[in-house]
């Protein structure tokens, strides 16, 4: 059964100046072409916070979804400033970048952001991504002006209208979530993260997966608490929270070390944070349209008594953010 | 031998309604021998579906043997590997063949693809199957199950791009994806190598410079593939490794233009088709 997302909240790609979140890629792990995923889409993670064609372009992650966004920018946008916020450099969050058209056009200024990590710089990682023998077009072919920013603070004042906040997530090798405040609008982008109960991630594992039943040390527990607190702050009173819901609870128990979250967990966080809308995101490549419809229906029923509205991210559509009440 | 197109794209996977007829997965060709030999040529995202299709048999019990031939190391030829389920199961044997022509070994390239910075798998050692590597040498024949495999180095921008010939009991198959012929000698080498094969599966993009492929500046018909097939005396040619910007509609135009070109070049006998994801043929 097909479920319509509440019509007034979603629209097809348009250039009107309403503030919205546009979903260019909604999958986790690997792109999944095919008719089974035709409705929700098969491209990997890429979300745009859209405020108008004359404003700087704000993008979260650079999965294959960013390729189509690149064409869209080239064809329609009037502003040459592009800001790309990277959660982490796993393939599904950067693999579209080598095909992002504005990189090959000298009129653009492109800024990349990620959380500073001591082990590797974002610039090195991205340049390494597009080197032979894995990719033929190195960064020397890029024509745009490129800037790399490694965030040391949890807060970045991007321009007078826009502030970005960031916090750590629970993911192998680390990832960071974002909150964007634009005028009176707020949205949160939380992917990839595991829940905060079975295991603290970040360390390397070799061989068999770590035992999820093993007791957490008090240090691990307090580290997880700290991550949870940071995530709650990013989601606090947010108009829309985009959250990693790749797993069911039983997936999480089987693969706690893969660093992905569940529908229940996302729901719990958003309720506690008093967010207004929750958007399921980073869909499992194994979950087809029908299964996603069912999940959405199930959790809408569960949420029906609360004021939290639930959606699932659909490629090539936008979630319109409600006009904030002026006080 | 049964040949299945699991992925037919070059460069990057392209999900979406525009590509739902010919398919959006990156390159992977599956081969099944009459005596049960299982192998894949290239490991683009198409290999994930191939992996799932194997899972109701000996591979789910950890008793499967699988061979994978990687013709070169660009992402579109390896990016499906981390999601190939039989590689996760203890007991399965996965043998991966690459070229001995490269400076960096294939194992090295795959480890680099899986490093913690890029992948939650973190290293090849986290795959439970027995994974081994073997280097193919041009001019030397290698036995894989009931097949005889021969490779040659074809013109390409990177270290190496292999062309290969797989000989079974009922016939032989030629394969060349990601080739950029530049000099007459490049064509000559490929033509000599493929002479005598029954079916040729060949890259559809024609250009002299690899960079131009990415920016979209390349010929709109598959003239290089036609030339190789025609001059080698091949009867059946499948085009594959399609440009990621090509929709189903563009691909049908490509086929029309290429057929016209093939007639003009005098290869009226050549039977020409587009590879289509999910389709198989028996050789
Ligand atoms: Zn991811
Ligand atoms: Zn990740
Ligand atoms: Zn390729």
Report on the structure:
The complex is a heterodimer of chains A (327) and B (283). Chain A is of the alpha/beta class and 327 residues long. Chain A has one domain (10-205, 215-320): Metallo-beta-lactamase, Chain A (4-Layer Sandwich), CATH 3.60.15.10. In chain A, 21% of the residues lie in helices and 24% in strands. Chain A has 6 helices and 15 strands. Chain A has helices spanning 65-76, 122-129, 218-235, 249-254, 263-272, 289-303; strands at residues 10-12, 20-25, 46-50, 57-60, 81-85, 109-115, 145-151, 155-159, 162-168, 176-182, 185-190, 240-244, 277-281, 309-312, 317-320. An 8-stranded mixed sheet of chain A has the order 1-15-2-3-4-5-6-7. A 7-stranded mixed sheet of chain A has the order 8-9-10-11-12-13-14. In chain A, a hairpin with a 2-residue loop joins strand 8 and strand 9 (162-168). Chain A is globular, with a radius of gyration of 19 Å. The N and C termini of chain A lie far apart (42 Å). Chain B is α/β, with parallel strands linked by helices and 283 residues long. Chain B contains 6 helices and 14 strands. In chain B, the strands form 2 sheets. In chain B, strands 6-5-4-3-2-1-14 form a 7-stranded mixed sheet. In chain B, strands 7-8-9-10-11-12-13 form a 7-stranded mixed sheet, covered by helices on one side. Chain B has helices spanning 46-54, 106-114, 184-194, 210-214, 223-232, 248-264; strands spanning 2-7, 28-32, 38-41, 65-69, 93-99, 130-136, 141-144, 147-153, 162-167, 172-176, 199-203, 236-240, 271-274, 280-282. The radius of gyration of chain B is 18 Å and the shape is globular. Chain B has a single domain, classed as Metallo-beta-lactamase, Chain A, CATH 3.60.15. In chain B, 22% of the residues lie in helices and 26% in strands. In chain B, helix 2 links the parallel strand 5 (93-99) and strand 6. Chains A and B meet through loops of A and helix 2 and helix 4 of B.
